[in-house]
DNA sequence: TTGTATGCAAAGCGTTTGCAGTGAT
DNA sequence: ATCACTGCAAACGCTTTGCATACAA
């Protein structure tokens, strides 16, 4: 049976309050404000459990480590800002893409990622989340 | 100055002859038919060098390790077969996707991955490349 | 001969797992 | 009092790097 620990609550809250998919490391940092001694292994274990329970879903972008967000958002896509590297949900979809595949191929699903500048980075606002910038 | 080694030729040939993007491990296996003692580190070093030279490009699919293919194909996308896990090029594109992003966001580029069955796996043909199937 | 490229092994990085101790029920 | 959960550290898979040797030029 599942138990309600402070750690699990902190992890769940961290993701629920973020308005975007978070990396495990970001979840750790956010959840540690509530549970200072929290370990990264606990974050991974809970992320996995919460995904299996259907509460969270993994967000995989090309060439990126998996991020996690709450389920509920129906079919949607993602946008990654090339300046701050953050990922945002896009609640729009180009629609039927089956016609794009070669003859004989059957298309069942698709993933779409948009790249560019988020609204904050588009305006002259100071760069956000520079700590997660790639080297 | 760059040197022409047997290893580099074997790696280049392996990728050129494949009709799809290859994983480093697949490149190693293919190139070893020509250079048996080839090491994986040499594969990685050459892949990186060939990408920097502009001869190869990395193909990153969501949740997958990077694959490599020859450059030349202009803007295109990819299709991954859910049965054999192989990746194929798709020389079609849904076109302008800038309208999908939220207000204030600027779209500069996009990545699209289609999922389904490749032609071989759609027909009753024997499963291909089972050695690369995920556990 | 010179210095880049190679093979091996060790190190990195993100993620998973074993284990003894902790704490929710 | 159970037994799932936690933190730590070791283990993993993929990729990179240090180093002495091999070989293209």
Q: Can you tell me the CATH class of the largest domain in chain A?
A: Mainly Alpha
* Euclidean distance between termini CA atoms of chain A: 43 Å
> What's the mean pLDDT score of chain A?
90
Oligomer: homodimer
The chain pair forming the largest interface, with residue counts per chain, is: A-B, 38 and 38 residues
Relative helix content of chain A: 25-40%
Count of folded domains of chain A: 2
The description of the largest β-sheet of chain A is: 3 strands, mixed
Structural classification of chain A: alpha+beta
Q: So what's the overall shape of chain A?
A: globular
Order of helices and strands of chain A: HHHEEEEEH
The CATH topology of the largest domain in chain A, please? Answer: Arc Repressor Mutant, subunit A
Instruction: State the total count of DSSP E strands of chain A.
Output: 5
Q: How many distinct helices of chain A?
A: 4
Q: Which strands sit side by side, in order, in the main sheet of chain A?
A: 4-3-5
Instruction: Report the C-alpha radius of gyration of chain A, rounded.
Output: 17 Å
């Amino acid at each position: 049976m599942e138990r309600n620990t402070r750690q699990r609550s902190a992890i769940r809250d961290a993701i629920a309050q973020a308005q975007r998919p978070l990396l495990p490391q970001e979840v750790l940092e956010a959840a540690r404000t509530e549970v200072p001694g929290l370990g990264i292994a606990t974050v991974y274990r809970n992320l996995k459990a919460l995904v299996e329970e259907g509460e969270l879903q993994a967000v995989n972008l090309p060439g990126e480590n998996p991020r996690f967000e709450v389920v509920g958002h129906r079919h949607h896509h993602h946008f990654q800002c090339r300046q701050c590297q953050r990922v945002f949900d896009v609640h729009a979809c180009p629609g039927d893409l089956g016609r794009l595949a070669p003859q004989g191929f059957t298309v069942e699903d698709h993933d779409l990622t948009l790249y560019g500048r988020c609204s904050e980075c588009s305006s002259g606002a100071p760069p956000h989340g520079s700590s997660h910038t790639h080297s």
